[in-house]
Write a structure and sequence with these properties.
The complex is a heterodimer. Chain A is mainly beta. Helices cover 0% and strands 48% of the residues of chain A. In chain A, the strands form two sheets. In chain A, strands 2, 4, 5, 6, 9, 10 and 11 form a seven-stranded mixed beta sheet that branches. In chain A, strands 1-3-8-7 form a four-stranded antiparallel beta sheet, with no helix packed on it. In chain A, strand 9 and strand 10 form a beta hairpin. Chain A starts with a strand and ends with a strand. Chain B is built from no helices and eleven strands. In chain B, strands 2, 4, 5, 9, 10 and 11 form a six-stranded mixed beta sheet that branches. In chain B, a hairpin with a 2-residue loop joins strand 6 and strand 7. Classes of the chains: A mainly beta, B mainly beta.
Chain lengths: 112, 114
């Protein structure tokens, strides 16, 4: 079934550790996005990529980095995790920036 | 300051009746609006969208209304079904629908009672 795959589904991480959340889509979508969802705050955009080779900052980019080496993959890296990064992370993609986004099922990350 | 507001955290409706979910926005540059539905432990699913050049868009049981002068949009679900029970997010985009700048509301949890 075509869609977006996120890994891991959940993770407990010690503060200060490096962590990469993986996101792969098989729909050949040009645009990809990373959001975090926190209780009472809805979804907030971290980083996005309108096409392979380009990335942009969203609303809450600090502490996160992304890369877009190819069309299908869009990993999100926390270089040195902090407890405030405890959240549910959603990856999404769209055919292009003007089309609705399709979301993965999320990664639940706890930083202790 | 929150640019997209969903002031009702929850809504309970009887099966078969109409559900009305509301959303207000503050940024007059927003010109493309979307509704997403989210079930627990799943990602949001796109439901319906509307461009600022329209005031209504309909897709089956779902209709979105846009009142630009009031900076208000609403999602109507008629008739409501128990499977509609989920969290509904309103989202808005400036710059002609550039999805890279999608701003979400906090969501409204809809419960449809059998």
């Amino acid at each position: 079934i075509a869609g977006i795959t996120q890994a891991p589904t959940s993770q407990i991480l010690a503060a200060g550790r490096r962590m990469t959340l993986r996101c792969t889509q098989d729909m050949r979508h040009n645009a990809m996005y990373w959001y975090r969802q926190d209780l009472g705050l809805g979804l907030r955009l971290i980083h996005y990529s309108n096409t392979a080779g380009t990335t942009g900052k969203g609303e809450v980019p600090d502490g996160y980095s992304v890369s877009r080496a190819n069309t299908d993959d869009f990993p999100l890296t926390l270089a040195s995790a902090v407890p405030s990064q405890t959240s549910v992370y959603f990856c999404a993609s769209s055919a292009d920036w003007s089309q609705p986004q399709h979301f993965g099922d999320g990664t639940r990350l706890s930083i202790l | 300051d929150q640019q997209v507001k969903q002031n009702s955290p929850s809504l309970s409706v009887q099966e078969g009746r109409i559900s009305i979910l509301n959303c207000d926005y503050t940024n007059s540059m927003f010109d493309y609006f979307l509704w997403y539905k989210k079930y627990p432990a799943e990602g949001p699913t796109f439901l319906i969208s509307i461009s600022s050049i329209k005031d209504k868009n309909e897709d089956g049981r779902f209709t979105v209304f846009l009142n630009k002068s009031a900076k208000h949009l609403s999602l109507h679900i008629v008739p409501s079904q128990p499977g509609d029970s989920a969290v509904y997010f309103c989202a808005a985009s400036p710059y002609g629908g550039s999805q890279g700048n999608l701003i979400f509301g906090k969501g409204t949890k809809l419960s449809v009672k059998p």
